[in-house]
Amino acid sequence: MRAGGLHHFGLTADKTAGALTLALALEPGAPARALRVDARSTGVAEGGVRIEVDLAGEPRQLGGLWPAAVPPPASLAARSELSILRDGQMTATGRLTVVAAATPAVIDFASRYDARGGRLTVPRYALDWGADVHLEGQAEVTAGLRISGTARGTVDGSPFGGRATYETTSGALDGEVTVESFSMLRVSRRLGASPAPGEATARSVVARFSSVAGAHRPTARIDLLARGLTATALRSFPLDAALEATVTLAPDADPRRLARVNAATLTLTRQGESVGVLTGASRGDALWPLAVDGKVDDLGRVAPALPLAAMLSGSARIVGEVRSADSLEFQGTLTANLPRAQVVLGAPVVLTNVRATVPVASGETADTPAGSVTVEHVAGYGLALGQATSTARIADGRLLLPDISYTQYGGQGRGWLEAALDGRPAPFRTRLEGQGVDLARFVRESGSNVAHLAGKVRYLASVQYTTPDGLVALVRTDSEDGGEVGIDAIERLLESAAVQAESSGVLRLTLENLRVFQYESLEGELRLSRGDGRVDLTLRGKKRLGIFPAPVEAINVRNVPLAVLARTFTRGTTP
After folding, report:
1. Residue 571: what pLDDT?
2. Which of 2, 12, 232, 496 is 20 to 30 A from 372, alpha carbon to alpha carbon?
């Protein structure tokens, strides 16, 4: 009688000269190939017996006869030869074939049993699973039912080594596994598990584990060290990861599953320096959800992992919970404090006093209330803006700032920004529009050496950074009303080789008779791609007394290199 019900067997025997043959099989009513054992025994010298055993079966058809804790393969077959001496000593050799996938696993072994000491030894075994798995080692079972074994070889091209000891009376388990050139995708395929959303590799992985039987459920301790660990989004940022965890295992019916994580600490280091620490534990008696708390005390050590060249100072913390392992469903909040951050988007862009409280979600988590980001000052490309704020959230590896607002040279701006954090080919894009930008204030605050510039303008800027093309930008601007430009600045611009051919002697002669050029409208366009910036600029002269033509009707500059314009209107700062 077993948990799966009552099972009937049929036994037949055939005695011939010097040999006894037995056949054991499930009675009719069971699947025809569920289980069959054939044994043939013959006498040997000194009163011993030699037994040849053939076993074949389909464990999935055995119901309660198969242990619930062990996944049943599609079929198994074994052939062995046992020699039993009169004093109880026994030796055995054989081969076991297990078909659990398309490729069968084959185990060849030799064993010896010492009846006087109650000790079973396997001095040699070899496991071959297709062309990609080859392991060999030894095993031993002592009288106190202490089982131990070793393994060494290769798995999917990676060197593998392991040892384990199990005390059957106390339930204590102790072991260690070492893998060189580890790949999460290879392991998932080998185990027939659903592949993870991304790949993770390591130069080497060492895992030590031990477990004891508790009053209610067994507990286990796991210590894991992965060197040269990389993930899909962090291929150029290898880390060393050390995990210390204590877990409670599921009931005896299925001890392969975890019941809960009691406590876990993951420490990430790079070149011997701490990068971050992540702690976690199950919130209740069940495994999920898993509460996590991660801290990075020095964001400067994380900067090389970003898809853009960056220099960071400050700290960050993320708190939340993992709700499912299958889809890596996570929901939490990231807080960060950065006194200074510099990101290279074709040219350095410096952000001062960044404060962020941002919800983070991945997988199929529900929408969460948006957080916030504030930046006291942003400077780059000879321009600056201040008091930038936006709601914010991180979803599926992207930082989303959908409603940015800011001040700029007495004017106001608004827009949106997306920044990818997971290694996408387009890690950054934004769209900004401003109005009421005071050119005189811009000249004063940027330190321009232009003699005179006045008026207010508005603009619309679309910017994208891609891995193959770098920064790509299109900026259109026009004046909100008239203004003035110092003639010395225009003359220096006209003197440049880039626009000399477009300048007429009549225009230069007219400009020499003016101290300033009063414009009625200003229109400009900036195009930047693959490091090359070009500018079109049109200034239309303001009529005198509102009815008489302007001294200069218009100044048109086409396709001027951005570097030339920057040298003309600033102190030489170029992108």
Report:
1. 46
2. 232
